[in-house]
Specification:
heterodimer; A: 8-stranded mixed beta sheet; two-stranded antiparallel ribbon
Chain lengths: 237, 633
């Protein structure tokens, strides 16, 4: 499997600022182009359409940033990690900036499955003022099919408040069968928390309606939660 | 002056939008000038992924950015979901670099890439909160300048622009920006600034002309006449004479969003003199100007290094006609070996040489090859001056199969002037015989993977071509002919696909319409038409309603056929090719006579070199490979 002539460089980078709105595919393409611009001696696959030998870590959804993301790049020649990093940094957009590079064992697990545990921080526009209610299950639509995911299968540990109550952190585990998107969980928690605080009004607002859109339904019992400012993956292991 | 940063508002909307990456800017290669005294925004009237690869946007932003003290930015039309959200939230159309409202720019340029973008121009202006009509704009509204292919008949767009720049903009657009700047600096009125613009070569300033009625237009040989001294009665297209010598490396933005043609594009030559009589591009980019091998190879290598693209396309109207194409491709192949880079050559010419060139860069992966015979019989190909024979096509197919291709697509048009049912059946016959040829040239055990698609489009008469006087056939007739074609194709392996005649009809109306069409465009947009080029968004009902409202019969505009002495609504615009040449070419078409290509043969006296003060510039003499194109008129 692993080609002994190649060098596997793991590059760490941040997906931040407005580029948090990029999709995984867009990030991957952008990083690959940065590698080419940097002039690194990347390996190329054999076959009908030769392409760069590069492997990306677990995907982040559109709108979710990450401070310690990574990809594995296979090089045909050894380049000192700090030199490779400097070359990459010189040709990377500020919001997709690499900040670390080190060689890893060729036999190490693939980048996409190397770190099943992801910790996220969700920052709100102001203090949340109460504990977020975690729904038992979340309904998602994948390829036009509805699917119900049990939150317990993915959520590891508690929802932890931080930053003076303006943010929460939680950890999700990716399973071989699939994973729960952090933004989907956050949205479900917000809806559940706001609905729970004004459960009497929930029926009045109409079943299935977007609870957050109908702000007046909440005013008597509880103000809606502050808006979500950002969701960021803070670590993976 | 640009000052507002709309990003906080845009970010909130973009988060919820389909593909937020359309609205982010900050791509690699995008530059923002923060200490500029003057500002220009180049806008494309469709979404980011369609507009970002556009050559005009790339070239003109670079050209204006090179001016001292001027900020040059880009803007695209937000997709329908975002446009609606922006209207609801009161967020105006914005530029990508500074996320500034379009209406704060001093000059806004909008390119008009094709006839179906008209309602999008209005959608963009409205979203930008700029008055739709130039006549309604106030002193501090931007000067809105149009240009691009549709400037060949600018009348349906005329009232929405302060000025229209006709032809290649490398030099004229910076000149126009400088003229507006000078006027603004002197505290001049809008009208005074527009007078300055009329002095810039190849600029059509609508408000300085009077529109004539149909009878008077025929008597005066023009539908518009200057209102004052010093305003040109005929606007001749601008030609960038320095093209061949100029650096083929045109810096470009590398998008995050996946764009169409998402690769490095290097323009290797401009112009095509083959002289197909239906083709507007073939008339409006003359003369032919080739860049040198060194210029091209150097641009490709630098471009790959600076952008990080893994694919480069050598663009032009007919890349395989470049006199040194073989040397270019061979050198690039050697230079790019082992880097996982693909070189592509769009639009092969239809002979075995074209296939050899395609093979040089194809690598091991062979997708489909596309050829455009355009018409099914030699008689009709002679009428349209498509100088290829059946034998050319068959030789091309033999070469393609030998090289390992298995899929072929053939492009044809129906409704060409002079077409009969025999020509339509001729398409089926030619396609089937071509398929027989594919089979014969392929080993029996590989014949299962053979596939042929016949793609048919409806002929759209275009301004500044020999067929500008010829009407389009009705939609009913178009469907009948496509039906006839489908029945005539007996092979199950030959698939026929055709383009919706409904949008081709609107194209013809916009292509041939006069000033009255501007009201039609506005009424159509008001009735809900936008993104007409998107099949799933095309709103036929809106165009119908609009025609009734303004009292136009669009069928008359699209379908009327005239004598060559009839003065068309764009008679005051000249592509450089003279009306006499166009009339002569139409006459030759009716007689079935072909006309040669002046880059391979003698001058055809089309008039471009004389009228624009230019000439063909070839990197080396062009020669026909064995067996190619011996048919001349």
């Amino acid at each position: 499997m692993a080609d002994p002539r190649l060098f596997r460089l793991r590059v760490r980078y941040a997906k931040s600022g407005r580029l948090a709105l990029l999709s995984h595919l867009e990030v991957a393409r952008s990083l690959e182009r940065a590698v080419r611009r940097a002039g690194l001696p990347f390996a190329v696959t054999n076959g009908f359409s030769p392409h760069m030998r590069i492997a990306f870590g677990a995907a982040l959804p559109v709108g979710v940033g990450g401070i310690d993301e990574f990809f594995d790049l296979y090089l045909t020649d050894y380049v000192a990690p700090e030199k490779a990093l400097a070359a990459l940094a010189a040709v990377s957009p500020a919001d997709l900036m690499p900040h670390g590079a080190a060689y890893v064992e060729p036999t190490a697990p693939a980048a996409s499955v190397a770190c099943p545990l992801s910790a996220y921080r969700v920052t709100f526009d102001g203090p949340i003022g109460r504990a977020l209610v975690v729904p038992e299950q979340v309904e998602v639509v994948r390829k036009k099919k509805r699917k119900v995911l049990a939150v317990d299968d993915f959520l590891v540990g508690d929802i932890r408040a931080c930053e003076d109550g303006c943010a929460v952190e939680f950890t999700l585990e990716a399973k071989p069968t699939g994973s729960l998107r952090p933004d989907v969980l956050v949205e479900a928690m917000v809806v559940k928390t706001e609905a729970g605080a004004s459960s009497g009004k929930e029926q009045a607002a109409g079943a299935g309606g977007d609870m957050r859109a109908d702000a007046s339904a909440h005013e008597a019992t509880c103000a809606p939660l502050p808006a979500v400012r950002s969701i960021v993956r803070i670590s993976q292991k | 002056m640009i000052q507002t940063d709309l990003w906080p508002q845009v970010q909130r909307l973009a988060r919820r939008a389909e593909r937020p990456s359309r609205y982010l800017g900050s791509e690699w290669g995008a530059t923002r000038t923060t200490d500029a005294d003057f500002s220009f925004c180049m806008a494309y009237p469709d979404t980011y992924e369609l507009g970002q690869p556009n050559q005009a946007v790339r070239i003109l932003v670079n050209a204006v950015a090179a001016m001292e003290g001027v900020a040059a930015e880009r803007a695209f039309l937000p997709a329908p979901d975002m446009a609606d959200a922006m209207r609801d939230a009161g967020v105006p159309a914005f530029s990508l670099e500074s996320c500034a409202p379009l209406r704060e720019f001093d000059v806004v340029g909008i390119t008009l890439p094709h006839e179906l973008a008209a309602t999008n121009v209005l959608e963009l202006l409205d979203l930008a909160q700029i008055p739709l009509r130039a006549a309604d704009r106030a002193v501090d509204d931007p000067i809105v300048i149009g240009g691009g292919p549709c400037a060949m008949n600018p009348e349906p767009y005329a009232p929405f622009f302060d000025a229209i720049s006709v032809g290649e903009g490398e030099e004229s657009v910076p000149e126009l920006v400088a003229a507006v700047w000078a006027g603004r600096a002197a505290g001049e009125s809008r009208q005074q600034i527009l007078r300055r613009l009329a002095q810039v070569q190849s600029t059509y300033v609508l408000s300085l002309y009077r529109v004539l009625d149909a009878d008077e237009a025929q008597r005066q040989s023009s539908w518009v006449v200057p209102l004052e001294e010093g305003v040109p009665p005929v606007i001749v297209r601008r030609v960038f004479e320095g093209f061949a010598e100029s650096d083929a490396w045109e810096p470009c933005v590398v998008p995050f969003a996946e764009a169409v043609h998402d690769r490095l594009n290097v323009e290797v030559l401009r112009g095509c003199a083959r002289g197909c009589r239906f083709c507007q591009a073939g008339m409006m980019y003359r003369p032919v100007r080739e860049r040198s091998v060194d210029n091209i190879v150097s641009a490709v290598l630098r471009g790959l290094d600076e952008t990080g693209y893994d694919e480069v396309s050598l663009t032009s109207l007919s890349t395989t006609d470049h006199s040194q194409i073989e040397e270019i491709l061979t050198r690039l192949n050697r230079a790019c070996a082992g880097r996982g880079v693909r070189v592509s050559v769009p639009s092969q010419r239809l002979d075995s040489f074209g296939v050899q060139m395609a093979e040089l860069v194809a690598g091991q992966k062979k997708g489909g090859l596309t050829f455009a015979p355009e018409a099914g019989t030699q008689r009709l190909r002679d009428i349209i001056n498509k100088n290829v024979s059946e034998e050319d096509l068959f030789c091309a197919i033999d070469a393609a199969m030998a090289a390992g291709w298995r899929r072929v697509k053939l492009y044809f048009m129906v409704g060409l002037p002079g077409e009969t049912d025999d020509d339509v059946k001729g398409i089926a016959s030619l396609a089937q015989r071509a398929y027989d040829r594919m089979k014969a040239a392929t080993p029996p055990d590989q014949r299962g993977s053979l596939a042929m698609t016949v793609s048919v489009a409806l002929f759209v008469p275009k301004a500044q071509t020999p067929f500008q006087w010829d009407g389009q056939i009705s939609r009913e007739e178009a469907l009948r002919r496509v039906g006839l074609l489908k029945r005539s194709v007996k092979y199950r392996a030959v698939r026929v696909s055709y383009h919706d005649p409904q949008t081709s009809f609107v194209e013809a109306v916009m292509s041939r319409g006069g000033r009255a069409c501007a009201d039609l465009v506005q009424a159509a947009w008001e009735a809900g038409a936008r993104f007409d080029a998107w099949t799933e968004l095309f709103n036929e009902e809106a165009w119908r309603t609009a025609a009734d409202k303004v009292g136009l019969v669009p069928e008359t505009i699209a379908e009327a056929t005239y004598d060559t002495d009839y003065v068309m609504p764009w008679a005051h615009i000249s592509a450089g090719v003279t009306q006499e040449f166009l009339a002569e070419e139409r006459q030759r078409a009716q007689e079935g006579l072909t006309t040669q290509d002046c880059t391979f043969d003698a001058c055809t006296v089309c008039g471009v070199c004389m009228q624009t003060g230019t000439r063909n510039q070839l990197a080396a003499p062009r020669s026909m490979p064995e067996g190619g194109r011996e048919r001349h008129g």
